[in-house]
Amino acid sequence: MSVVEVLFVLLGIVAVGSALLVVTTNQLVHAALWLVVCLGSVAGCYLLLSAEFVAWVQVLIYVGAVVVLLLFGLMLTRAPIGASTDLDAGLGQRAVAALTAGGLAGIVITALVDAFSGERIDLGGDVSTGSSASAGSALFRGWVLPFEVLSLLLLAALVGAIVLSRRDVGVEPEAADGGPT
Amino acid sequence: MPLLMPLLVAALLFSIGAYGVLVRRNAILVLMSVELMLNAVNLNLVAFDVWLRDALLSGQVFTLFVITIAAAEVGLGLAIVLLVFRNRETSQLDLLTELREEPSDPAGVGTAAR
User: Fold this and answer.
1) Does the beta-carbon distance from B28 to A28 stay under 8 Å?
2) Residue B74 to residue B76: CA distance in whole angstroms
3) Is the predicted ipTM greater than 0.95, yes or no?
């Protein structure tokens, strides 16, 4: 195994372990912080796969923005500090969920091993495939229209979030409906 | 690097995220589990992009798109969760039963035939 493979295995173990902690811990804030560890190690995996630009975007947006948003959400819904007992569903639902997730993992992994067991990713040679220069040129040459549509979607989501969180939307003030006089 | 390595990590992450979505009762923890599943998909996209040496970098560009959409989804989802919390004083998903069907009577056809 090369150094890259060893590093990838270690990062993968960290990612899967912290993901398990995200879904099993009984402290809300710890779940968000384990999510940081998981997303950070996935960013490391991107770096090892030579997708450098995606890795930094992952760090900036996921680890930076999304986790902070989630922490704000926890704070604003008055999440308790310390252990909670009511974060998980009952034992029956937990067993069914574990069965479903385990079955899903089994089926998918069997199919993947069957289909791709001999294939190798060639990481040698051209290391500039994922640099910001090539990613930027691909984004603004080949994918510029989806990029613009995505900016519209972000605008719509922004407006939607503002409308949802304002308290005075839809409440007509009584004095204002007199019409022009 | 064997292609299976990123694919196996992604499959495990996706299954863990699915388990979290099914098990968690807190709405924000469910959103976190959805993020885990999205990350698994992103890892798959990047791995296949690097494997196929795509000239247009489709996989990586799609990963960027998915990250953006995930950010929009989290923003809207949290706004909805906060609205629910403001109205109901709870963010536990199984307490929000306002829209469910009434449990049917033992005969089973009584309400349906009406």
Assistant:
1) yes
2) 6
3) no
